[in-house]
Design a protein that fits this description.
This protein is an all-alpha fold and 156 residues long. It has five helices and no strands.
């Protein structure tokens, strides 16, 4: 178990208070400086009431003021009306034509012919032939096991 001695606790508390003081010092200083040259609060516009954090970040150049109007090239590049911004693309018609049944049969015949040519090449290469036959045996064994399992479960 982790136990701190009394002197270790005191040292940790001193370090924590020193860190808090170092973090709070810029906030206090910026608030004091902001009060020196700031106009009265009654004359500040409501939209400029940023709050303490944003005012500190502005002083540190980590936050921006309102940027105002965009530059001319930005205005020229925007469309005249911005009522609606489309989210998705327009649906376009497919460029491929629907095949007729005769064309599908011809394509299937071409694929079967390519498969037959590949089978001829595969059969000429013994390691590929053995791997192919082993794969076919595994498929047949799996199908037979599935058929044998189906009647057994139906009988129960």
């Amino acid at each position: 178990m982790f136990v701190l001695r009394c002197c270790d606790r005191v040292a940790i508390l001193r370090m924590a208070s020193l860190g808090a003081a170092l973090l709070a010092a810029p906030l206090v200083a910026s608030a004091a400086l902001a009060g020196d040259n700031a106009p009265p609060a009654a004359s500040a516009p409501a939209d400029q009431d940023d709050g303490l954090l944003k005012s500190v970040l502005k002083k540190a150049n980590m936050a921006t003021d309102d940027l105002g109007h965009p530059q001319d090239f930005v205005v020229k590049s925007r469309p005249a009306t911005t009522d609606y911004v489309p989210v998705f693309r327009n649906n376009e018609e497919h460029k491929t034509k629907v095949l007729t049944p005769d064309q599908l049969k011809a394509m299937e015949a071409d694929l079967d012919a390519a498969g037959a040519r590949n089978a001829h090449i595969r059969d000429a290469f013994p390691p590929a032939r053995r791997a192919y036959l082993e794969e076919e045996r595994q498929k047949a064994a799996k199908a037979a096991a599935k058929k044998a399992k189906a009647p057994a479960t139906a009988a129960q």
